[in-house]
Design goal:
There is one protein chain. This protein has helices at 4-9, 120-131, and strands at 21-22, 28-33, 36-46, 49-56, 69-76, 81-95, 105-113. The chain has one domain (21-131): predicted glycosyltransferase like domains (Thrombin, subunit H, Beta Barrel). 14% of the residues lie in helices and 44% in strands. Strand 5 (69-76) and strand 6 (81-95) form a beta hairpin.
Length: 133
């Protein structure tokens, strides 16, 4: 778990309602943005959302789009664990700099899960137990 104290020392204000955990196993997140499939590897996850990194050719597009909701999928291939149609909102995207990958546009994206009646958040808790704790 990332501690609030560590984040504070780095000048980051923690606004999340749930503790977040670094993914210790590979997990992928995906959703469609105007027909384009965005797929990336999860960096950290909590009951309230996640962040992931992805490669894109969207240099200037803002996929946050004023709170638009997306259906994301989470996949943990090692444990054959899959969550479909998890409602989320893109909270932010920002470039990640890798000198080796100067020709690729690598970004970090933060998603916030939207509570629903279909039990998806209990599956997120189960996934966190499998990959992070």
């Amino acid at each position: 778990m990332l501690s609030a104290e560590l984040l504070e020392r780095q000048g980051i204000i923690e606004r999340r309602a749930y503790p977040r955990y670094m993914a210790k196993k590979r997990i992928f997140s995906s959703f469609k943005y105007h027909g384009e499939l965005i797929v990336g590897e999860v960096i950290d996850i909590s009951e309230g959302g996640l962040s992931f990194k992805y490669v894109t050719d969207f240099h200037d597009r803002d996929i946050t789009e004023n709170g638009r909701l997306y259906d994301t999928e989470l996949l943990n291939p090692e444990d054959r664990f899959w969550i479909q149609d998890l409602k989320c909102r893109v909270v932010y995207t920002r470039p990640i700099s890798y000198e080796v990958l100067t020709l690729l546009n690598v970004k970090k994206c933060g998603l916030m899960f939207i509570p629903s009646q279909n039990g998806h958040l209990s599956k997120v808790k189960e996934l966190i137990d499998k990959i992070a704790r």
